[in-house]
Structures are given as C-alpha cells and as structure tokens.
Fold this protein.
Amino acid sequence: MTTSLLEASHIYAGYGEVPVLRDITVHVGAGEAVGMFGPNGHGKTTLLRTISGLLRPSNGTVHFDGDDVTIAKPSDIVGRGLVHAQQGNMLFGDMGVAETLELAAFKPRARAGAKAALERVYALFPRLAERRKQLARTLSGGERQMLSIGCALMCAPRLLLLDEPTLGLSPRLKEELAVAIGEIHESGIPLILVEQDVEFLLSLTDRLYLVEHGEVAREIDQASAPDHQEIMDMYFGTAAT
Amino acid sequence: MTETLIATIVSGLLLGSLYALMASGLSLVWTTLGVFNFAHGALMTFGAFVAWTVAEAWGLGLLAGAVAGVGAAALAGVLIELLLVRPFYGHRNMLLITVMTTLAAMIILQNGAQVIWGARLKQLPPIVEGNVSIFGAVVSAHEALIIVIAPLVLLLLWWFASTTRTGRSLRAVGQNQDSAALIGIDVPRAFSLAFGLSAALAGLTGVLLGSIRFITPSLGAEPLVKAMIVVIFGGLGSLGASAGAAFVIGMLEAFLVLWLGLYWTPSILFLLLILVLVFRPNGLFGRANA
Amino acid sequence: MTRTRIAAILVAFALLALVPLVVTDSYVRHLFIIAFIYAVVASNWDLSLGYTGLFNFGHLTFFGVGVYTAAILAETVELSPWAAILCGGITAALAALLISAPVARLKGIYVVLVTFAFSQLAMQVVLSQSDITGGAEGIVRIPYLQVGDYRFIRDYNLAYYYTAFAMLCVSTVFLLAVVASPFGKSLRALRDNPDYAASRGISVARQRIMSLVLSAVFTGIAGGFYAIYLRVASPEVFGFGTLSLALSMVLIGGVGTIIGPVLAALFLTFLTEAMAGIRGLEDARFIVVALAMILVLRLAPGGSIEMLSRLRLGAGFRSRRETTDTAGNRS
Ligand SMILES: Nc1ncnc2c1ncn2[C@@H]1O[C@H](COP(=O)(O)OP(=O)(O)O)[C@@H](O)[C@H]1O
Ligand SMILES: [Mg+2]
C-alpha cells in the first residue's frame, strides 16, 4: 500500500472522553477521487479534522505522500499540500473575498503560484470575482462554499478534503458546485468528498466509504460495484434513521 | 483666553495619545486571542524601568534605553502568553481564568519592580529638550513629540494589520482559529506575536511617559484604568473605535479639568461612565457583540 | 452539604470561639481579627463570583464604601461607631444597586471591565474629594468602639476579637442560608445552564442585581468595622493589592463553596503577615500570593476544596485534565 497518497490507519479519536472514531482506516490513491457518506454524527468530519491535524488521534497513524504526519501541526500539513475545506465554514467574517483568497496562499509553496491560482478560482467561480470587496459574513451560503473551496485551491493542494460542500444549498447551486468540483478533479487534484447525497458522490468519485459509528462500514468500488440503485438501497437499508 | 483653550486642546491630545496607545495594545490582544491582558499597564511600567536602567543607571543613552525597554516589555509579554495564557486555551472558563492569571502577572511585575528598583522616584530625560509654541501656547517639545508619534504609531499598526501578510494572519486567527490553521497559519505563533507586539506598544508608552511622569512601580496602573474606560466606551473589537474613543475621553478629561478643576473631574467622569452604560450597555461606539 | 461537612464547620467555628482563651497576645488576636474581616469579604465575593458566575471584579468597592461611610459618619458627623458600621452595610448595598444597573445587562469581559473600572473610579473620587475623605492621607483617629465605659481595645483586643468573630458567624450563616434558599438554587441553575434557566423564566438581570446587593451588605459592614477597628480609612482599600489578596482567598479556598474562602482567608492572612515580618520579604509577599493563585488555576481551577475532594476521589482529577487537553487547541 505504499503507493497511496494518503493513508489513515486504525485511527481512534474523539472529543474529551467521548470516543468518535474507532479503528477507522481509509486511503486515497494518486489521482483518485474518493467519496464518503453515512449518517449524521458518525464521525466523517471528525476523521477529516484528524487527518488535517486539528485533532490529535489517541491511536493510529496518518501518512501523507509517504511521510508520517500524525502529530504534525495543521500549518505544516497544509504546507505539504494536504488541504481541508471545513464543513459549514464561516472563514473570516470581517475580511473581503479577495483579501481572504490572497491570504489563503500563505505558505511559501502556495505563494509561488498565487497569481495563477487566483485567476483559476475566479474562472471557476465567477460570482466570487463579482464580489471581490464583499465581506465574507455578508455572503450567501452558496457563495461561502465557493469561497471556502476557493481558499483551499489557493493553498496549492495536492489532496483536497471537501466536507459537505453542498450542505443546505438549492439543487441549482448544488449542480453548479458539482461541475466545479468535477473540473477541479479533472485538473489533476485528488480529493476526498464528504456528502449526504450518494448520487452526487457516485457521479463525481471512483470509490466510496460508508462511515458508521466511527468506522468504515462498507467500501464500494464503482468499477466492481452493483448499480446505483443497489447502492442506494444498501445505504438507506443500513442507515435509515 | 485662546491660549488656555489651545493649551487645553494640547493636553487633551496628549492624554488621548497616551490612552490610544494603551487601548490599541489591549485591543490587539483581545481581537487575536480573546484575552484581556490585565498586566498591560505593568508591562508599560516594566518597559520604563528597563529603559531607565539602560539609559541612566548604565549611562548608555536614551536610544539604547528605549530599545531595551520596548524589547524587554515585548519579551515579558511573550512569556506571559506562554506561561499564563496558553495553558488555558479551549478551557471553558478561559476568559475568567486568563483575567485572573494576567492580574497575577500584574501583581508579580509591579511588586517585582518594587523589589528590584525600589520606591525611589526615577525619571527618563526627555527625547527632545526645550519647548515649542503652538499657536501661542507653550508646550514642552517632548509632549509635542508624543502627540505626533502616537497617531503615527497607530497608523503604522493599522497599516500592518490591514495590508501585511503577518498582520492579516493575526486578524484571521482572531476571527476563526481553525480556518486560519487550515490555510497554513501557525496559530500559537500568531498568539505569541500578538502578545509581544502589544507588550512592545506598552513598553513604548512607558518610555514616552517615563520622562513626563515619575517612574514608580504603579506608573502603569492609572493609564491601564483609563484605557479600560476607553475600551468600555469604544468596544474592544476594533482598533479604529478604541483609538477614537481614546481621543474623546482624553479631550473630555482635559476640558473637565479646565471647567471644573481637578476636584470634580474624576467624579463627573465616573458619573458619565455610569450614565452611558445605563443607556448604552455596549459602549458609545460598541456593537452588540463586539 | 453533607452532614460530616456541617459537623466539621461547626467544630472549626467552635475552636475559633475558644482561641482567645489560649491566645492572649494582642498581636496574634489582631491577625485573627483581620483574617475574620477578610473572610467576610472573600466569602461574600464568592456569592457573586462563584455562585452567580458573575465576573465581578469590583467587590472591593463595597468594602471601600463601607470603610469610608463608617469613617466619615463616625469622625465627621460624630455618629455612634456602632451605627456607623451598620450604615456601611447600607451604603455598600446602595453602591451595589448602582453598579448592577449596567452590569445586569452586560456580557463577558465587559462585566469585568465595568466592575473593575467602577472600583478604580471610586478610588479616584475618594482621592479627589479630599475635603470629605481626606484625599490620599485618608481619615485618621476615628472613634473606637465601646459599650458603656468599656473600651474594646482593652484586655488585648478581646472584645474586638469577639465582635469580628460574631460578624463572621452572622455573615456566614446568612450566606449559607442564601445559598440553600430557592433563590440560591436558581442562581446555580442560571450559572450552570443559562439557556435552560432562561426558558424557565429566571431573569438574569434580577438575579445579578439581587446577588450583588446581597453580597455587598456584609462586605460593607466588614468595611465599616475595619475602619473603626483600625481607626483609619485610606484609599489603599481600593487598590490592586487588596483586590488580589481577596481574590486569591476566593480562588485558593475554592470558587462556589462559601466556606472555602473563609478558611483561605484565615490561612493567607497569617501567611502574608508572617512574611511581612521577615525582612526582605515585605514586598515579595504579594508575589507569593500571585504565584499561589496561578498554581491553583493551573492545577485545580476549582480551588483547594475541590482539590481535596479530588484527592479522595482519586481518578476524578486526571479525567478533567484530559478533557481540557483534547478540547484545547493544538493547532
Ligand atoms: N467539538 C465537539 N465536541 C464534542 N463532541 C463533538 C464535537 N464535534 C462533534 N462532536 C460529536 O462527535 C460525533 C461525530 O461528529 P461528526 O464527526 O461531526 O459527524 P459527521 O461529520 O459524520 O456528521 C457526534 O456525535 C458529535 O456530536
Ligand atoms: Mg460532518
């Protein structure tokens, strides 16, 4: 398994004394787009926070590009190109769109290509370009998600973790974001995409993890998988709440 | 008549400058870490004492003294953050606990200064000798210099926070720590930097004040209280509002002294504070959740 | 409160009542008297700070108001010192009412700033109104307490000792009664779960006003007694030194315990007085108090009482540490 770009093995983590993740193992191969779904509150966000260094696991290891980053600082992990766009991210409420994006190219590696990256973000999300001066806290939900993804792109990602980027958005906006995410992946950036909507994931990713009770309940490879409908049945069969 | 008026305005500007320097340091730490630093006034005193030791006791001159004073205060600020604030990040009572630990730091610095430097009155020489005349009113050149330096320092601070990468990163940390970390900002380092910078401002204030007042262990107590009143009026959340409030309070104080004299000024200021708070609990310029 | 705890408290107070039989030295009795005064101040502070969860840093204002009320009434107006002391309680309660008007509506750090600024401005007012307050020199040679012809200073402070002790007893019983009352329970409910309490119709503003005023009464009386006993009133009572000493008593004794601060007051008064007697340590004693405060906050944010009960529970201490560690930002 040394060919994997990201390898999170046997992770245990939680908040205080409450365990959330129990021996979860996931990996992402070079160039891969991996989906992650499962019922609310079962640890998807916690896993991403552990991978990006915001949380320290009580057990298990995280390897990125062959290096052990389990106890690295979040700022160092970003520097390596492992970039996390948080769920429901408010970013910096009192900063403008352009200012936020410029600041997001913070690490030296990202700064080098900041100009091109900024143009790319504005091409991908023309709405952001129209709102350069607007403060983040006055943006709509969809625009906020675009800014959040835009910020992640400014960090020169070599692997992108997207946590429910379409949460609470209208079907039209969701479609818009799906196209953008597809383009990002096609440009060669591997990603982990967390979503509730399995159809959305199936159209964008090659492989899926079903996360339940802090562990991988099922791994689905689209190449050898049953058709969409069966996956849907599987999901709603096991996780109906 | 006009001379008294101008002298009063100058005195108001001087007080305002002093309060603005203090309040902006408090506001910098508050907006970045959500900590109110009670030791801010004591850091100012510490800076003044170190400057005096280097400049006067060792005879190395005022410039060396000023640099040493500002540097020592900054170092002390960084240590306070490291030892007394950092262990409590994320604690559910962090606000209250850090008020108490920084209060303890103030006691230690103030009594430490008493032990090291004693109670004998000390004073720094003025940066510039002599007097200047402003529209007929005669002011000491040193005081005139303070009135010029303070707004410049505040402008510099504003420029730093709004345009430089490091300054922006401090604001980002203040608004969202997790998001700041996830774009690559080293959050603990930003905390140290904010505390160090704020303490350096306190040290600078101490050096400036050290030649117009006597340097005693309690030199910083009164300016701290005035800066607190300033941030009560202006809110802690923004540099501009606290600087504005500082000059309003400074001017108000100067004119109250002119009209009512020293006897009544503190009581009237006190009354005004209570009145304003009853009608505007978030301060004159404060936003609801500043 | 458990029955053993009540028994322990009763035994402790009974022992304090017997102290003068053993201790006849007037200086040691003086230390006890000062400790009793501080105990009243610290335990009443605990009502607003610990029980109500109100970030009140102006508690010493109430003490200072009591000091100056008694001093001015007894010295300038020549009221009986007894009445002057009681008036200290009334004016302190009025001061609490005044400050609670804005404080009832403020949040978080602004409560700290406003209450603290209140105490500092009170000091400025006292300093500037020198015609009435004596300014920086204060008021001296205040009339002493006496009953008939018996002056309280006689018999090595014996009468002062028992007066101070009685004051502490009444104040403590009062505080424990407040805490045990339905009002006290609602205070805790509000502190521990503001949203729930608000939904049950408990008014934050009313609770804060009540708790500040109640905590001011005996603090003001203690201030009045302090002025009459020492026969001086000086602006120092508003200063950082007094504040930090009283705060360290609340913290080291244990926030939200009432009895803890009483015990800590006894302990710390003797400790700091002992250090004041050692040459070279006069100025360092407040440093030691501040360091102790920091240590308590680092090791046991609840104070020594909590620390003791944790030692008995064993594992409790460690689990709390882990919670804070993981909740803390490691970024
Ligand atoms: N900051 C936190 N403190 C305590 N518990 C939390 C915190 N964040 C999340 N949790 C708990 O951790 C569990 C997993 O949450 P999360 O990882 O957000 O799930 P998901 O992203 O799959 O919806 C939930 O039970 C949630 O309540
Ligand atoms: Mg989630």
User: Anything to note?
Assistant: The pocket of magnesium ion (ligand 2) is lined by residues A 44-45, 87, 163-164 (CB under 6 Å). Residues 23-330 of chain C form a domain with the ABC transporter involved in vitamin B12 uptake, BtuC fold (CATH 1.10.3470).
